[in-house]
Here is the input.
Amino acid sequence: MKIIKLFLLIFPLLCFSQEGNIKVLDIDLSNYEYPYPVHFLELNSQRQYLKMTYMDVVPENYNNKNIVLLHGKNFNGAYWETTIKALTKEGFRVIVPDQIGFGKSTKPDNFQYTFQQLAENTKKLLDHLGIQRTAVLGHSMGGMLATRFALMYPETTEKLILENPIGLEDWKLVVPYKPVEWWYESELKQNYEAIKKYQMANYYDGKWNADFQKWAELSAGWTSAPDYDRVAWNSALLYDMIFTQPVLYEFKNIKSPTLLIIGTRDKTALGKPLVSEEVRKTMGNYAELGKATQKAITNSKLVEIPNTGHLPHIESFDQFIKPLIVFLKP
Here is the structure.
């Protein structure tokens, strides 16, 4: 009996890789397989040719409705796997790009990142696919991008869904500005243990399982690669974009019917380590931010998911997907 109890204590530790066992991933994730076939769109942008990767999943029971899934800052299109499966089962065509600087897409040596540029790239992809109308779902940073897309292309955005979007508050009002070089040095220090510690504390309320592990390993796989410095540099440029380009002041201008899906345990906010404990307590209060954002967006609905953090579609999938499908259907 003692041996069995000891095994039960040790077994969870054996299930999850440690730093030395993380698979090293190249800069384009060519040695990482996505859940659906990957396609590439060539973009001529800012005096260079860039490769934008995307999945385009058309079900046999296609209902002539489309949805674009926009990933967050610490992720790429692969983490939408379960969402894609559920949506295609309902007949939706699902388009999932990796934005420039992410996943299997190009990591430029130099690029001026703006949400407008990323929105334009996404529109070019939709034009390439011949899609004139679509729902747009953005998670985390993808929520900021989805908002900008809806503002720039209201005629294309049939419906807007924001899943725990960041940028519901303006951090530069309370957080001191740090130059791109500071973010770059911070990113160079990333490794599996740091990523797991951050995600466990900020996303999952101290919990950990194989699903969470999968996405932490994907992020960590780059950190041991020879060209990780280019990944880190693009990440630093993106942090500067997020920090300096808030969208919340324009929520009132959104025309598309909007659904907010908010995990109310979420406390995500950019720059928390740079402020006092007193200020930190005021940041990232999604239980309050969700309600305030719903009031700011005309023709919007709020679905709150209790006991859930920053990734409802990973942590509480059933509670995420059910209201999403109801909202998407006519």
The longest helix spans residues 228-244. The first strand starts at residue 39 and ends at 45. Confidence is low (pLDDT under 50) at residues 1-19.
